[in-house]
Prior knowledge:
The chain has one domain: Decaprenyl diphosphate synthase-like (Undecaprenyl pyrophosphate synthetase). 44% of the residues lie in helices and 15% in strands. It has 7 helices and 6 strands, in the order βααβαβαβααββα. α1 packs across α2 (27-48) and α3 runs parallel beside α4 (106-119). The longest helix is centred in the middle third of the chain and has 25 residues, at 67-91.
Amino acid sequence: MKQILPKHIGIMIDGNRRWAKGKKLPTFLGHKRGIERVVEIIDYAAEKGIKVLTLYGFSTENWKRPKKEVDYLMDLFTKFARKYAHDFKKKGIQFRHIGGLEELPKNLQKEIKEAQRLTKDNKKMILNIALNYGGRDEMVRAIKKIIQKKIRPENINEKVLLDYLDTKGLPDTDFIIRTSGEMRLSNFLPFQGTYAELYFPKICWPDFTKKQFDLAIKEFQKRGRRFGK
Length: 229
């Protein structure tokens, strides 16, 4: 019997700094190890047949972190997009960015746009990288677009709102994973994840291996998804 897979998995990448601190390593090494794990899990999710994967990399609140750490992360994201865009193209993975683009560094914006251009026709899996993303910010941006389009209030419904979110055209998130044991959604996909199953493994992101991913999928498959029935 074929096991049911989530159509859209959202992962809150949490615990890179705690992982580094626990090993008495610099914070930056935690983030570096975290990116390496990101690459591994992206490939594995595509192999498993996941159709949409959304990774929460940097929130609108993360700008409050020390400038040195933010600059390092932006450089890490820029190198990630530049290095793996062609790899994603070959593997059939479509790269998308969700979140506010204009606030990101210009060189990162450039690499994001190029990665999206290179992979726009890929169909195997859609990869959303959430950078400068916040669910409330996304809702505000969506409402502004609706106002600009002069859509009449009586014509606005859930479908219309979904069409103006960053995830337009994608299925709702049905499974959200947050590593490191924190049990909050922290402004991550609040509208799309309304009916998502939630999973909070205690391990930090750098230790979230393929085996841990499989355990998460097994947990999802145990859940009874009744949607109020």
